[in-house]
Fold:
Amino acid sequence: MKQIFENYQKYRWFFTSSEKLVIGGKNAIQNEELLHLIKKEGKNFRVMHTSSPGSPFSIILEDPKKIKKQDIEEAAIFTACFSQAWKSGKKCADIDIFNLSQLSKPRKAKIGTWQVSGNVETLSVPLELYLVKQNSVLRAVPEKTAKSPLFKILPGKIDKKDLLAKIQIETKLNLSKDEILSALPAGGIKLEKIK
Structure:
């Protein structure tokens, strides 16, 4: 577990409003790596994935007894926003929520593909995030997590690379292009100023 906590910034990550760390893979290879690492720990964390293929497996790295309903909602929004649903320009997505113990790796399954058995809770969530600094790093997080948000972002038609200069100028923060790009979901973006 120490290895994961020390290296969480190599994955997609954010802290919920109650300070729970949520991490997810940036791609199928990272999803695979992350699930194998966490499975070795033998803890039964809460895990999320979109109901359809193409999203991170997001894991709330906390004892499930200490997780609040709001933590689940925030992690579900995060999972949805970094999924194919965002690239497709959808306004909401269905997220499946289950325990790590329900996941297994079928023998011939491709990288990033896992099987869920047993009961799954499904939550429909909106696709919208807010740009903020968490642990001194720019993150795109759910609204309830966003303290002093810089921008609201939604699925849109503008390539995120075309928004780099606007974000750098209007935030008045010394943000590198790489930091901004890594905070934003893949696909088109619509940027709204916070009033």
In short: The helical segments are 2-6, 28-41, 69-81, 84-87, 164-171, 177-183. The first helix runs from residue 2 to 6. The two ends are 40 Å apart (CA to CA). The chain has two domains: 2-126, 129-193.
